C-alpha cells in the first residue's frame, strides 16, 4: 500500500512566522501535490511537482512556496504566515498521469494565531 | 477547465442504492472524471475513475452520459460505514495542474 506521511497532524504558529509542512511518500511517485481544504470550498490545489526540483503553481499559490529536493519529499512553505492561511493542508502523490489515482496523507490542521 | 458542481448533502437509509451526481458542463475532450471518498480526520481515498460510458468496480459504479457534462457515482446497498464526503474531480490528461475538485457531497446513511 502507498503511504503518504505528513509530518504533523496539528500545528499552531503565530502570524509572520515561516512555516514548513513536510510530506513524504514511499512509492517512488513522480507527482506530488499540496492542497488546502476549507469548509464549503472543497480541495484547492496550491502547488504541484512532477519531478525533483520541478514545480508548477496551482489555483492558489499566493503566500506559499514549495521545495522538492528529493523525489520522496515535498515541502510546503508559508513564507510569512497569516491568519487567512489557517486551514487543513493535504498532500498527495501519484505515479504517472491523470488515469492513476492520487494517494493522500491524513492532513495537517494548521492554525495561525 | 470544467468547474464541478455537486449537491452539498444527501441522506439515505441503510441498504438503499445511492446516486450522487456531479455537473461539469465545460468538460473538455481530454478531461478524466474521478471520485474520492473522505472520512473525518483522513485524506480522500480513490473510489473510481472514468472517461465515458460506465465503469464498475467492487465498491461503486460510475455513469457518464455521451455528452460527458455530468457523471453519477452509484453506491449499491449503502451501510453506515459509507457515511462520508464524496468528491468529484475533473482533471485534464495533458498539462500538469489542470484539475478541479468539487466542493463535496456529505452522505449520511441512516440506520
Overview of the molecule:
The complex is a heterodimer of chains A (113) and B (111). With 113 residues, chain A is mostly beta strands. Chain A has one domain (4-112): Immunoglobulins (Immunoglobulin-like, Sandwich). Chain A is built from no helices and eleven strands. In chain A, strands 2, 4, 5, 6, 9, 10 and 11 form a seven-stranded mixed beta sheet that branches. Chain A has a four-stranded antiparallel beta sheet with strand order 1-3-8-7, with no helix packed on it. In chain A, a hairpin with an 8-residue loop joins strand 9 (87-94) and strand 10. Chain A is globular and about 40 Å long. The relative contact order of chain A is 0.33. Chain B has one domain: Immunoglobulins (Immunoglobulin-like). Chain B is built from no helices and ten strands. Chain B has strands at 9-13, 18-23, 31-38, 45-50, 53-56, 61-64, 70-75, 84-92, 99-101, 105-110. In chain B, the strands form two sheets. In chain B, strands 1, 3, 4, 8, 9 and 10 form a six-stranded mixed beta sheet that branches. In chain B, strands 2-7-6-5 form a four-stranded antiparallel beta sheet, with no helix packed on it. Chain B is globular. The model of chain B has no long low-confidence stretch (mean pLDDT 92). The chains are: A mainly beta (113), B mainly beta (111).
Summarize the structure.
The complex is a heterodimer of chains A (113) and B (111). Chain A has 113 residues and is mainly β.
Give the topology, please.
The complex is a heterodimer of chains A (113) and B (111).
Chain A: E1 4-6, E2 10-13, E3 19-25, E4 31-38, E5 42-51, E6 54-57, E7 64-70, E8 73-78, E9 87-94, E10 103-104, E11 108-112
Chain B: E1 9-13, E2 18-23, E3 31-38, E4 45-50, E5 53-56, E6 61-64, E7 70-75, E8 84-92, E9 99-101, E10 105-110
Q: Helix fraction of chain B? A: under 10%
Assigned CATH class of chain B: Mainly Beta
Helix and strand content put the structural class of chain B at: mainly beta
State the distance separating the first and last CA atoms of chain A.
Answer: 37 Å
Q: Give the low-confidence spans of chain B.
A: none
What is the CA–CA distance across the termini of chain B? 39 Å
Class inferred from helices and paired strands of chain A:
mainly beta
CATH architect. name of chain B: Sandwich
Mean pLDDT of chain B: 92
Q: Return the domain count of chain A.
A: 1
**Strand fraction band of chain B?**
over 45%
Envelope shape of chain A: globular
CATH superfamily of chain A: Immunoglobulins
Count interface residues per chain for the largest interface.
A-B, 25 and 21 residues
Amino acid at each position: 500500500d502507498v503511504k503518504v506521511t505528513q509530518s504533523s497532524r496539528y500545528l499552531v504558529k503565530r502570524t509572520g512566522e515561516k512555516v514548513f509542512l513536510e510530506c513524504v511518500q514511499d512509492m517512488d511517485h513522480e507527482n506530488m501535490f499540496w492542497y488546502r481544504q476549507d469548509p464549503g470550498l472543497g480541495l484547492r490545489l496550491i502547488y504541484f511537482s512532477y519531478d525533483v526540483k520541478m514545480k508548477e503553481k496551482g489555483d492558489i499559490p499566493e503566500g506559499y512556496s514549495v521545495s522538492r529536493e528529493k523525489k520522496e519529499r515535498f515541502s510546503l512553505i508559508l513564507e510569512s504566515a497569516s491568519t487567512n492561511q489557517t486551514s487543513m493542508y493535504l498532500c498527495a502523490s501519484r505515479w504517472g498521469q491523470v488515469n492513476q489515482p492520487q494517494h493522500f496523507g491524513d492532513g495537517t490542521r494548521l492554525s495561525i494565531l | 477547465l470544467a468547474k464541478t458542481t455537486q449537491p452539498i448533502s444527501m441522506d439515505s437509509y441503510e441498504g438503499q442504492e445511492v446516486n450522487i451526481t456531479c455537473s461539469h458542463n465545460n468538460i473538455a475532450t481530454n478531461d478524466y472524471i474521478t471520485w474520492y471518498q473522505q472520512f473525518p480526520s483522513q485524506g480522500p481515498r480513490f473510489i473510481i475513475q472514468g472517461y465515458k460510458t460506465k465503469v464498475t468496480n467492487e465498491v461503486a459504479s460510475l455513469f457518464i452520459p455521451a455528452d460527458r457534462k455530468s457523471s453519477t457515482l452509484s453506491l449499491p446497498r449503502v451501510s453506515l460505514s459509507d457515511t462520508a464526503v464524496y468528491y468529484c474531480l475533473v482533471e485534464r490528461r495533458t498539462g500538469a495542474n489542470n484539475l478541479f475538485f468539487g466542493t463535496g457531497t456529505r452522505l449520511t446513511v441512516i440506520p
